[in-house]
Amino acid sequence: MPKISSPTHAHDTPALTDRLGAGQTLALVLAVYFAVQVLIRFIIPHGLELDEAEQVYLSQWLLPGYGAQPPFYNWLQHGAIQIFGISLITLSGLKGLILFLSYMFYYLAARQVLEDKRLAVIAALGLLTIPQVSFEAQRDLSHTVAAIFGASFFLYTLLRVISRPSLLAFLLFGIATGIGGITKYNFAILPIAAGLAVLMDREMRRTVLSWKLLPAALLALAIVTPHALWLLDNFDEASQRTLQKLAGDETSLLGGIAKGLGSLTVGVLSFLALTLIVFAAVYREHLKAVVRANSRWTRLVGRILVLSLGLIILMILFAGFENVRDRWLTPILLAAPLYLALKIDAAKIPVEVSFKRLWGVAVVIMVLIPLALALRANMGRINGNYGYVNIPFAALSKTVAEKAAGAHTIVVASDGQLAGNLHFNLPGMSVAVDPPPATMTSSSVAGFDRIVFVWRTKDGSMPVAFDKQFSNYLIEQGITATPQDVAIVGYPYQWGQPSDQYRFGYAVMELPR
Q1: Is residue 105 part of a domain?
Q2: Whether residues 169 and 113 fall in one domain
Q3: Three-class SS of residue 247?
Q4: Which residues pair with 376 in a beta bridge?
Q5: Which of 353, 356, 396, 457 is most buried (CB neighbours < 10 A)?
Q6: What would the mean pLDDT of 292-298 be, rounded to a whole number?
């Protein structure tokens, strides 16, 4: 007997595909996903991660520059805290909003150039398959999160300029380029590579080389100028940390080049491997067609990716870069899922089956990542390996508040994470860090009656003696007094075994009036 297909099922599949390919569906799912991430961050222990603590500490000031990273995220965090106050909701909510907007701009970028607009959802969901975007950005990143936003916004405006070259499109392009330039310094590789890729196409070159490019350039320049002027005055201090990370210690030229190319290869593979595996599995029946497919848009985005990597190779060959980390590649290789979506579109592959498969992968990822973050906070009580969120900064802050009571007090912490956590728990108290962040000077103790010094070793072992930790600070400040109250204290980890404790040192010093 011949098999009779269900009419209902035949009509449901295209309707379901249309729903899964709708921007409204993507926006709703992502909004719920990032709201869950904010909730998870609020539920787990409230110790701040490295980047979270840095943002809290630096949010006390609105400056054109703060150190080794451009200021865009700092400015946003300062504004959010000024409006909503210091809280985990403010910290994680801002990050969630920036990432949500990043995914949506990426979706809009894909819609500019895809013939089948439903595939724009495939491109955006592809970001979830990049660990540096989906997991690392949620775990503890700030400036990279800003760079993800900058790259997504840039790609959207670039493709809009080429496909619909209105004055508004060019102005948005200038804004996106300027914002990207103050997210992370390595973002500069993306517009340079994009510009070269556009110049290689005659039709695109004619479109972009328009008088409208001038006001766009002026807008970009206006956005980056405040930080650029600051950077000119602080270049050595601001670049030292970044250059130390990228440069190696190879004395041999060939050895340094080999190390640099090796680190780039590993970085690219770790960044793109999961994405390539997922897309290959989802489109396994049409893999050859996807590989062979081509269009003017695949050529453009493909050139951007290749030229970006070529620029990095030049930096390895001629600038001595030896340590190219996968996270550093984030804004540079972010266009990869878009490139794959364009290849799929060019191959004219039916989307019904692939939508279900890729949405299935995306849902699994969106379930696993919040679970992983929550479980990570619980692992210390099992294996004794506690994370930053478990460190009992709140308990320490209560002790510091008691020691500071009754006098105009400044708290001086031994590192930025400690200072950020103290400011988070004691927002009304003056908190400084020694040594101060790059390009910033030590806070003066003039006008204060008391100093509470707080220090630690990063692993929670016994802190060193007070004078060894702060001797340089005392000399710089011209302080000759001695502390009246010095102690090493230990507190149980949050969500840890009661017997597992993290140690801090504190010293209370009265200042002469």
Answers
A1: yes
A2: yes
A3: strand
A4: none
A5: 396
A6: 96
Measured at the alpha carbon of residue 147, what is the angle toward residues 142 and 153, in degrees to the nearest 5? 130
Look at strands 501-510 and 485-492 and give their pairing.
antiparallel
364: tokens are 């699994």
Number of domains in the chain: 2
Residue with tokens 């979830």: 128
Yes or no: say if 154 and 191 are a contact pair by the CB < 8 Å rule: yes
Cis amide prior to 2 (ω within 30 degrees):
no
Q: Which of 370, 403, 418 is the last residue of a domain?
A: 370
Tell whether 218 and 282 lie within a shared domain: yes
Same domain for 423 and 305, yes or no, is no
CA distance 83 to 62: 14
Cβ distance 488 to 462 under 8 Å?
yes
Exposed, middle or buried, 153 (CB in 10 Å: 0-12/13-18/19+)?
buried
Rounded mean pLDDT, 210-230: 97
Element (H, E) at 492: strand 485-492
Task: Indicate whether 366 and 273 sit together in one domain.
Answer: yes
Residue 65, by phi and psi: left (phi above 0), alpha (psi -120 to 50) or beta?
beta
Q: Which of 364, 363, 351 is nearest to 290 (CA)?
A: 351
Please name the residue that has the structure tokens 């190390």: 259
Q: How far apart are CA 431 and CA 335, in angstroms?
A: 41
Can you tell me the distance from the alpha carbon of 65 to that of 76, in angstroms, rounded to the nearest whole number?
13
Task: Output the 3-class SS for 173-219.
Answer: HHHHHHHHHCCCHHHHHHHHHHHHHHHCCHHHHHHHCCCCHHHHHHH
The mean predicted confidence, pLDDT, of the chain is 92
C-alpha 335 chain-centroid distance = 16
Task: Check if the beta carbon of residue 427 is closer than 8 Å to that of residue 87.
Answer: no
CA-wise closest residue to 308 among 332, 336, 334: 332
Sheet holding 485-492, edge to edge: 430-433, 409-413, 450-455, 501-510, 485-492
Task: Answer yes or no: are the C-beta atoms of 408 and 450 closer than 8 Å.
Answer: yes
Q: What element of type H or E holds 505?
A: strand 501-510
> pLDDT (tens digit, 9 = 90+) per residue, 11-24?
446 777 788 888 89
Task: Give me the residues paired with residue 488 across strands.
Answer: 505
Contacts (Cβ under 8 Å, ≥6 apart) of 456: 414, 415, 418, 463, 502, 503, 504, 505
Tokens in use for 507? 């010293």
Query: Whole-model pTM?
Result: 0.94
Contact predicate 57/416, CB 8 Å? yes
CA distance 245 to 250: 13
**Distance in angstroms (rounded) separating the CA atoms of residues 144 and 503:** 31
Residue 363 predicted with pLDDT over 80: yes
The per-residue pLDDT for range 249-262, each reduced to its tens digit, is 666 888 889 999 99
Q: What is the pLDDT of residue 249?
A: 67
Q: Is residue 326 part of a domain?
A: yes
Question: If 0-12 CB within 10 Å is exposed, 13-18 middle and 19+ buried, where does residue 320 land?
Answer: middle
Fill in the amino acid letter for 310: G
